[in-house]
Every structure is written in C-alpha cells, then in structure tokens.
Amino acid sequence: MKTKRATAKDVAELVGCSVSAVSLVVSGRTEGRINNDLRDRIEAAVQELDYRPNQSARTLATRSPSNIAFVCPDIRNPFFGEVFHGLSASVAAQYRVQLRVPSSGLDFGIDVVRDAQSENIAGLILAAPSSGVMELFRSTCPTVLLEAPDQTLGLPCVDLNLESAAKGLAQHLLAMGHRRVGYLSYQPKKGTFVVRRHHLEVAMQEGGAHLLDAIASAGELTIEEGEARFFESWKHWKENGVTAVVAADDILAYGAIRAAKKAGLHIPGQLSVAGFNDIPFSALIAPPLTSVDFRAYELGQAAGAAMINTINGRATNLTVVETELHLRASTGAATPLKGPKRRASGTSSAPAV
Amino acid sequence: MKTKRATAKDVAELVGCSVSAVSLVVSGRTEGRINNDLRDRIEAAVQELDYRPNQSARTLATRSPSNIAFVCPDIRNPFFGEVFHGLSASVAAQYRVQLRVPSSGLDFGIDVVRDAQSENIAGLILAAPSSGVMELFRSTCPTVLLEAPDQTLGLPCVDLNLESAAKGLAQHLLAMGHRRVGYLSYQPKKGTFVVRRHHLEVAMQEGGAHLLDAIASAGELTIEEGEARFFESWKHWKENGVTAVVAADDILAYGAIRAAKKAGLHIPGQLSVAGFNDIPFSALIAPPLTSVDFRAYELGQAAGAAMINTINGRATNLTVVETELHLRASTGAATPLKGPKRRASGTSSAPAV
DNA sequence: CTGAAAGCGCTAACAG
DNA sequence: CTGTTAGCGCTTTCAG
After folding, report:
1. H-run or E-run covering A267
2. Are the Cβ atoms of B88 and A104 closer than 8 angstroms?
3. What is the pLDDT of residues B151-171, one digit of tens each?
4. Which residues on B lie below 8 Å from A118 (Cβ)?
5. Closest alpha carbon to B299 in B322, B276, B316
6. CATH architecture of structural domain A67-160+297-322
7. For chain A, what is the mean pLDDT?
8. CA–CA separation, B133 and B112 (whole Å)
9. Looking at the record, which segments are called Disordered (chains A, B) (predicted)?
10. Interatomic separation, CA of residue A21 and C1' of nucleotide C5, rounded (Å)
11. B117 Cβ under 8 Å from any chain A Cβ
12. In the CATH scheme, what architecture does the domain B8-53 have?
C-alpha cells in the first residue's frame, strides 16, 4: 500500500537513461533536446511508476517556489474563507496558496509567521496582523499585508475603505435620529479595529453625536462574547440614553441582538443594532442585520494581484477596496427622547419578533 | 529590504566554523558535541543574521516532514474551518497543518490532492472526497479520510455517526406527525450525502412515512441555491402533502426557510424545516433551525489522532464521532391532515414571524 | 541529442 | 569536541 514514492532516478533506471533526461521530459522542455523515442519511453515509465516530481526538491534546486502562504487569525470566520477563495483564484495560474492559522487561540503570533517563512515560499500574505506580530516581523520574501491599516512598514498593503464604511454607517444612524451609540469593540489594539472605531466616532461627533464604549471589549469573536459584553454594558448604555449599538464585527452584533432580545428589547423599535463585515448570514438572522459589506472576495483578489506585482518587482504601495453599506431591519428610527439623558426604565414591551 | 535569507553557510563563515556545527547548535543537540564557547558564538551569529533553517531543505535531508496537509472542498463553509481548528490543535505538538482547497469551484479534484502530495508531507487528510477523486487517488503517504463513508479503500477513516443522526431526526419528525417529508439534497454522489439521505429515508419508511426528493439537487452549497431548489420543488411537495422539509446541509435549509417565508408559509406552523450540520448561525436565524450537530471540532481532533496513529504504524480502521440532534423552533407538529394526500391550496396566512 | 557533474540548504556518518 | 564527506531529489550547465 504505502509504495515508496517513485523518484526521477527510479524512472531513469527503468528506462535506462539519465536523470537529467527525465527531468527535461517531465518539465516538457524536450524541444530539440530529447529525441522522440526516448521521450516516449520516459513518458511510459512515468505513467507506470506514477512518478511525480518532488515539488520541494524542485523548489530547492530552482529557487523558484510555487506556493504562497496566507496567514490569517481564524479560519472559522467565514470572512477569511472568502478572502482566501478570492486570493486563491487570482493567483491560480502561477501559484498554489497554502493557509496557515494558529493551532489554537484567537490570533496568530510571530511563530506562525515564521513557520510559514521557513518553508520555501514565493510570497507571504498576512491578514489582519496584530501590531505585536508586526514589531517582530522581518521580511524574508515578498510580503503583502491585508487589512493592516496603521502598519507603517514599507510593505504593500491591501486595505478596506474603512473611512467611508464608518462614515456611511454613522450618517445612517444620525439620519435615524441616534445621538448616543454604544460601541462593542474587539481587539482594540489591532489596526483594522482601531480604524473602524475611530472613523465611526469622528463621523458621529461631526453630527453632534457620541460613541459610548462597552465596559469591556470582546476577547473572542464569538456570539457568546458579544452577548456577554452587551449584558455587561447595557445598564451603563441605557442610563446614558443609548438608542443604537454598533459592533466591531457582525458576529458580535449577533450576540448583541440575542442579548437584547433576552432583555426584552424590541429591535429596532427600542434599540438599533449594526455591524461590520456583512457575512452572508447577516441577512438571515432575526432581524436582518444592517452591516457594512467588506467584499471579502475582492479583497482576496486584490491581495493576489498585489502579490504578483510585488513578486515581479512592481510593488504597489496601497490598494483600497471599497465597502458598501447594507441597510436592513435591525436599524430604525431612534426612540424619541427629550433631553440628552433619558431613563429608559423597564421596557415597554413591543412583541419581540 | 529584501535581504537575502541567511543560510547555515553564512553563519558558519561568520563564525569561522563548519556548517555541521551550526546545524547541531540550531537543532539543540549540542550536548557533549559542541563546546560552550563555540555554541555561544554560533548562537550570536544566528541572532545577528536572523538565521532560520530552511524547513524544506531540512525535510529533504531528514526525510521526516513537519507538516501535514488538509484538503477540503470549501473553506468558506464554517464547518471545515472548525474541523481544521480541531485537527490543527490535536497535532500541534508535532506537526503544522497546511490547508489546500480548490482555487475555484465547489469541490476539489485530484489535481489539488496531487499538488499536496507533491510536497514533502508527513500525512494527508482528505475531507469529504468525491468518489471521482477517490477513484484516481493513489496513496503516497499516510492518509486519513474524513467524512467519507462508502469509500471502501483500506484507508483509515473518521466518520460521523450519520445513522443515528438521521434516525434521530426522523423519529423527531415522525413524533410530530410528519408523514411526507421533502428532501433537499446536495452532491448526491458524495458519500456523506448519500448516507444522510439513505438513513433518513429508511428511518422514515420504518415509521410509515415517505421522503420526497426535490426536483433537482443543489449544485452549490449556498443560501441562494437552497432557495431556488425549494421554489422549484414546492408545488410538487405541496401537492403531495409535504409538511416538513429536511435539507442535506444547514446552508440549504437557510435558503429553504427564506423561500418558504417568501411564499407566505409560516414556519413551523405550516411547514417544518430541519438541516444537518448545526453550524453556529443556525441557532440565530428566524426561526432557529432544528439541526444535527456534527461536532466539527471533535471530528478534526479525531482526524488528528488517527493521523498520528497512522504515521506511527498503528493505523485505526474507523473512528466514529457521535452527533447530536438539536431541537429548535423550526420544527413543530404537522398540520393535521386527513388522507395521505391533501390539497394544501393557497395559504391560510398565519403571520410570517 | 544525451549523460556526467555540480549544487540548492540541510543533516548524518565518520574521521580526526 | 570538530570538520569533512556524502547525499536527500531535483535542475542545470557543460562536455561528449
């Protein structure tokens, strides 16, 4: 069963020729080098032995690796799956892409990056790297950063237009009359999350509104965490007249919705909820979630294109992928209120749909 | 910037020693071999040059690869992300795992498998391989199959207990009075889906009920496909008195729910819906979906364990991971009906929640 | 047209 | 204790 994998030497011995001949034949550069008879015999032997060249050895010899590594924090998040898909498709003609994620926990550390670097890879893509990782990072091959605003290393980046995303969301909420908005954050030190919150806050303030942070930010990107952080913060928010909550990511928003429902709040009657990312499930939950579409597939494609350019020495500094706000039923008009502070005592129970 | 990666030779030259010395030092086997002074100087040079051994070259030399490849159909499906996570964690002490997926399309072909095999890998894990792939497959290293019932090659397998899953679901539906159940299938030639449907049908029949296939099975695992197939089949189902629909996967069930709602059907009042997989979002949609939990993380862990065993020559034939039925609001009592056939003409519109 | 030889970066015997 | 040698599987000059 575990037939030892055939090597070029095996083929050569079977045919009675040299290894170089089989090398030429399998790589198809037979033109004017190998006569047709020999070629046919080699090809037959290749078939028979099911020989396929050892890619690692080939890479070692040619110094032209055939795969690029994609490192991301958590592949369970459908967002990264979609990014991976776009990336993979856009480089498929020339490279295979292999995914690397932390074996456990919430985010990748420098170790995962170094593991990837220690293989022979043509390029490296780092998705949403933490500042901790970037401090320790040393480039050893063409590298592209994805979703890494604030990282001022000279590396090519592909970022989302988070400013327009946040601004769009803010304007929507402002137009609906929201002046006090709770914010459920995640990884407050990671560039992409810093920026989301920042632009949202700026835009809200320009509209004369305020962002109120949750008591604590989510430690993990799970529904449960979103739920727990919401419960923890709700008293504080309620006392300060919060009429809408924005979550740093849809998954947390799901948790917020669940918690709000459990607390007997009607959405959006008593509380509006919105998120970032717009993963496909956001349109299906109850109520459908207002969210900013991050165009994950495009992001992956852009990363692939940037990678190819970088490998070819035409490094692009920064690519920006646009985002799109999707308005759904989870956001609605703010409950009318009089002063800047209101005591939303109890709940005037509208049927929680 | 793109400082050429340092090699063992570079380190040796800087220190003025042989490459073997640095090899011994970096791999920590310095005991009684290298004197402390030399060791320290080498370590200093390693630091200075930021030397890290080329893993591919090391593998080539030692013939003991350090990573295992995981091939799966579609990483956008959170199920596989979770499996990957479990797998990754369970082999972390000894191996890194790298993911391989098709660059586009819905399923991996033999090409993806061969790409993986052509690297130096310690093991290969194939998730839900199609029969087409398995026909062409030739093992070149320890291989473990995941979710591959019906594949009678002599390879170690990790499967779900699909029989108890389907039986549990059937019994639930039977108890609720359902006698005509629509079935929304996906990839009807892939082992895992064949088996899901089969056991469901058998269990339904034992209870005197029938499974009615959709007009066509879903070509892709997306909400849209589920929706389209439902619409297409609903007339047929309705005419035959179908009171519940089971989807081969939760994602399709989401589509069915959306379609049913659009058709003005109340769930579960007029139609019950259930799925397989129980991805985390299933508890959040409206209405929450009754589904069979596939324990993705455990499945991944089991695959990791089976892999380790196989590598160590103690191949396990088959590992079965249990499943668990989660009852939620999407399933309820069948609308009372008189004969085996009922004309559910129109819709007595109960408010679609 | 074809084979022998060198070398990619590393490790593992074996001498000194 | 340390360096030299050989070789992992492949590609690539360079002679013949």
Report:
1. none
2. yes
3. 777 899 999 999 999 999 999
4. 52-55
5. B322
6. 3-Layer(aba) Sandwich (3.40)
7. 90
8. 10
9. 331-353
10. 14
11. yes
12. Orthogonal Bundle (1.10)
